[in-house]
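Task 17 of the worksheet. Students: predict the tertiary structure of the chain below and write it out as structure tokens. Keep your answer in the requested format; marks are given for formatting as well as content.
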Amino acid sequence: MPQNLSTGLERDTGSSALDYEILAEKAQTLGLLGRQLEQSLEQLRRFDALTTGENRAEQRATLLNEAAYRAWAFMVHRELCGVRNWDEAVKDYSIPGDVLSRMGAFRRPK
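Model answer:
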């Protein structure tokens, strides 16, 4: 007779429950960062499509810095989650080259 009639699922231990919570937090944060990146990129695209005027370059630089920061934060978190293929994210989010160029030399927007 079998000593154990369980279905083969492991018992939840304190560490496995904690691991699950950490994975859930990582996934939630990655989703939040992805949405923030999408919003920043959309603001930049809308600005490029609709804005003309004297202060355009300064305003665009601010939006570009914001998008670059959001892209950088998203990519760093992806790497922390074990996803290291940047090309996929650049393609999926349609991150423009000027945002990618700005990612290396930016200061966090205020």
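Marker's comment: Residues 14-50 form the longest helix (37 residues). The helical segments are 14-50, 56-80, 86-93, 97-103.
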